[in-house]
Amino acid sequence: xxxxLSAADLDRDQAVKLLDMAEEMAATQAREIKKLPxxxxxxxxxxxxxxxxxxxxxxxxxxxxxxADVINFTPKGSSVSKGESLKDTVLTLGAMHTDxxxxxxxASGAPYQIAHSTWTDASVINAGDGTHQHPTQSLLDAMTIRxxxxxxxxxxxxxxxxxxxxxLVGQDLSGLKITIVGDVLHSRVxxxxxxxxxxxxxxxxxxxxxxLLPVGVExxxxxxxxxxxxxxxxxxxxxxxxxxxxxxxxxxxxGGFFPSPQEYSREYGxxxxxxxxxxxxxxxxxxxxxNRGLEITSEAADSKRSVIVEQVANGVAIRMAVLYLTxxxxxx
Length: 332
Prior knowledge:
By secondary structure, this protein is of the alpha/beta class. The chain folds into two domains: 143 residues, Rossmann fold (3-Layer(aba) Sandwich); 174 residues, Aspartate/ornithine carbamoyltransferase (Rossmann fold, 3-Layer(aba) Sandwich), CATH 3.40.50.1370. The protein has twelve helices and nine strands. The protein has a five-stranded parallel beta sheet. Helix 5 packs across helix 7.
């Protein structure tokens, strides 16, 4: 596997292989010395044209834990601010013999264009492109869900069983129900999640107002509800993911996509009442950053059901696995 551009590019075996490798990587991070020599001599560039906290830092951490040299690139302070094109930026990086490029860009398809161009021979990993894809986010979400629910649902035990990475080897998400709520229209997380979770055997449900659903969503391999309470009642989720309302992608605050923040929170937000109505084993997720009080209350975000911080931790292990497999092309 030279590139990772889309969750849709992964088949079931490839996805499970990545999750299993991430468990191996996570096990090494419990040691006193967390660094591995695996990518020593390799150079990874974090090419981020959009702001990021979790994704950029976890990719940087992952690369450094694998002993790679890391270069962090941002448009501010670079020639991009002078008008340099994406092509010329990548050509410059290619001339420096970069081994891996982690790309986040506002234009959907930018990582694909880089990977299939003659601009560079480096491996390309999509860290989020426009409203299109965010494959490593869906992988870390799948890792989190699998840890909490996959083995327990098969064994008939409750959440919180003492699982090891070895217990999870080879398992997918078959039989699980995952509900994704909110701003699906602008969400690359939702698109990647639907692709990967269904590939892994889960049943996915989307809940959103009609104005925040993309054209053609009826062709996606998932069920769609326009009412959150109805969706939770008819398809009780094992994992409930609340999406961030992406105001920066709307023409103005709210942008006509919903009447007011208060109404959106009332109709589509996860509050104490909806939290209490979830099944005892159900977990609450959020890709971050959160708009507390809009799509999720602090009570829900900080509850015992919440695995939001764990998602961030699992992101390091997933990105270690992705970097290793793309830059070396091997599992051993």
